[in-house]
Amino acid sequence: MTVQDTGSVEDLAARLRPGFTLGVATAAFQIEGSLTADGRGPAGWDAFAEKPGTIVDGGSPAIACDHYNRADEDIALMQELGVDSYRFSLSWPRIQPEGKGAVNPRGLEFYDRLIDKLLAAGISPMVTVYHWDTPLPLEHAGGWLNRETAHRFAEYSAIVAERYGDRVDSWVTVNEPVSVTLQGYALGAHSPGNQLLFDCLPAAHHQLLGHGLAVQALRAAGVSGQIGISNMHSPVRPASNKLSDRLMSDALDMILNRIYADAILLGEYPKPPLALSPLFRSLGPVQDDDLKTISQPLDFYGLNYYYPLKVASGSGPAEIPTGAAQEMVNVPFHLAVYDEYETTGFGWPEAPDQLTTLLQEMQQRYGEALPPIYITEGGASFPEPDHVTSPLQDTNRITYLAEHLGHALTATGPGGDAEGIDLRGYYVWTLMDNFEWAAGYSQRFGLVHVDFDTLERTPKESFYWLRSLERARRREQQL
Q1: How many angstroms separate the CA atoms of 286 and 432, rounded?
Q2: Is 304 annotated as a binding residue?
Q3: How much is the CA Rg of the chain, to the nearest whole Å?
């Protein structure tokens, strides 16, 4: 598929329902840079990235895409792209450097300007309150293992709700609590670098509690926008029909999917099979009313989907890259290969049909408790050059996006396998190549190529493909 393949674009555009949101997503720590500018305090990720060996290419987030100084240029790119919405995150340590107490006026003003310029450009802001950049003083106090962090997050949420609540159309409280829990606290591949394995689960509970308290803070401030949360979800399957594989598949499904969605949507944690109970002991009894706080009704639920997982019992390194392959030798299962799928630059299986499976599972598990869905992240990295002089021919990314969006629309459309789901939008990860956490600058997910030596932005062919889809959708809706 290419940009010139207008028939495919027109067909896909015709299937986009009125009001369906097409957007792009980023995260503050990955693009902003200026880590020491304007009174911003350090994040746990700043300290983690400075440790030798934590970032695969030795890259530093200090400059990243320099979005802090180039926001106007990036908004102009989005305006040219024609997207309905931009999902971005606020930097907690830029707004509240200590993670509690005094705010930083210059940090607040940066996002004031960003939101106002987005609105002037006709782009709807979707704000993520927390996308992994815990202020370092809170990290030193235990981070998300410390219940107090949830209350500090509520205080910070109240600050940003009061400041921006009249202009933000959608709020995501927490992005991917599962990734923070597993990569940061269980396996140590991400900040803060803890390797607690299954004893990481208090970090999951406290993030969920922080989410619930943030929902209360946003609503108490009277924000005008809709409120939700985003989590990464994956279909999980056993590698064989052996009991041990099925049990380990159930364990990963719980720790990856159900702990979060069950608590948020059903107000309860899933009960593990008796044989798995010892693995989940650290989740333990929770305080009275915690689950009531966590499970307040939401306006939407955000799904971040990248790949399915196949689980085999027994320890060993993951057979697909997870960012923590070596650390996986310490858990009682490993991830097996999906031979039937091509893979991305990260080695993740390209499995758009499994997005249908995921949506179907969400519908079956949560039924009427499931609010409208946004796919708040979807995209792929592929091997690409550091320097370009013209639009990169990333047809693999175009195919990836077209197929995933197409499967999502089919699954949730009339007669689809997840027809009962109210799918409201799809956000592409990501607008531009960026600092990809522990992978540094080695993985490029962007619609826009960034030369990290010159910081020059060059739209890729996928950028122009999405622009053509946006234009075709508008033509279709004018008929």
Answers
A1: 41
A2: no
A3: 21
Single out the catalytic residue among 176, 327, 350, 461: 176
Whether residue 28 contacts residue 89, with contact meaning beta carbons closer than 8 Å, is answered with yes
Q: 206 among the known binding-site residues?
A: no
| Residue 194, annotated as binding a ligand | no
Does the annotation flag 436 for ligand binding? yes
Of these residues, 377, 384, 461, 470, which one is catalytic? 377
| Predicted model pTM | 0.97
Q: List Cβ neighbours of 349 (8 Å cut-off, separation of 6 or more).
A: 307, 308, 320, 338, 341, 342, 343
300-304/236-238 β-pairing: unpaired
User: What is the residue extent of each domain of the chain?
Assistant: 6-478
pLDDT per position as a tens digit, 382-436: 999 999 999 999 999 999 999 999 999 999 999 999 999 999 999 999 999 999 9
Owner of token pair 């697909």: 320
The answer to whether residue 176 is catalytic is: yes
Per-residue burial over 154-174, b = 16 or more CB atoms within 10 Å of its CB, e = otherwise? bebbbbbbebbbebbbbbbbb
pLDDT recorded at residue 478: 82
Q: What is the CATH number of domain 6-478?
A: 3.20.20.80
For the CA atoms of 256, 257, 263, 266, the dihedral, rounded to the nearest 10 degrees, stands at -170
* Residue 437 assigned to a binding site: yes
**pLDDT tens digits for range 354-366:** 999 999 999 999 9
Q: Is 131 annotated as ligand-binding?
A: yes
Is residue 377 among the annotated active site residues? yes
